Amino acid sequence: MSEINSMSQQDSEHSIAAADDDQWKDPEVAEEFAVHDDNTANWVIRKIVEARAYAARCGEWCRREQLRARKTEEFFLHRYGGQLAAWARERIAQQGSRRKSLSLPAGTAGFRAEPARLVVEDESAVIGWAKSHCPDLVRISEDLSKSALNDHIRKTGELPDQGVRLEPEHERFYVK
């Protein structure tokens, strides 16, 4: 049974790990229910497939709503951000205190001091400069091509002495 549980966890694209345990209730299924024939197996598979489809629909809906919210935010900031900043600056000045923000029922508007920062606009040009002036600034990263390693092992049978293990072919339980 633990093999099926671990395999279904690996197979599932969605995890309920983030779900609040206090809010999650197991679906109602008769305590005596068991998978014992084609019909009961089909029912369980249908429930799993339906749950995955529902999660996908929810994810898509959420993605669309987040995009809509970002677009709405961009619209209001672009259209009214300058006016809002000017209004806030004037109101803060009228208060005569050291505060740099205003609290309103819908939220807070204010100003923060931003430290100076470096903005790299052409990374390849800066890398060229760094190579000749200060080579320690340039990082070279390495990564392993697993597909090329698999091809090499298939062709030669040669395995690295350490750092890998060859899992034997096996069956993995899945539900689609």
Description:
By secondary structure, the chain is mostly helical. It has 4 helices and 2 strands, in the order ααββαα. The protein has helices at about 1-10, 40-95, 125-135, 145-155; strands spanning about 100-105, 105-110. The chain starts with a helix and ends in a 20-residue tail after the last helix. About 0% of the residues are buried. The model is unreliable at about 1-15 (pLDDT under 50).
- Rounded to an integer in angstroms, the radius of gyration calculated over CA atoms is 29 Å
Name the helicity range: 40-55%
Question: How do the helices and strands follow one another from N- to C-terminus?
Answer: HHEEHH
Q: Counting H and I runs of at least 4 residues, what is the number of helices?
A: 4
State which percent range the strand residues make up: under 5%
Tell me the overall shape: flat
**How many angstroms does the end-to-end distance come to?**
19 Å
Secondary-structure-derived class: mainly alpha
- Summarize model confidence as the mean pLDDT: 88
List low-pLDDT spans.
1-14
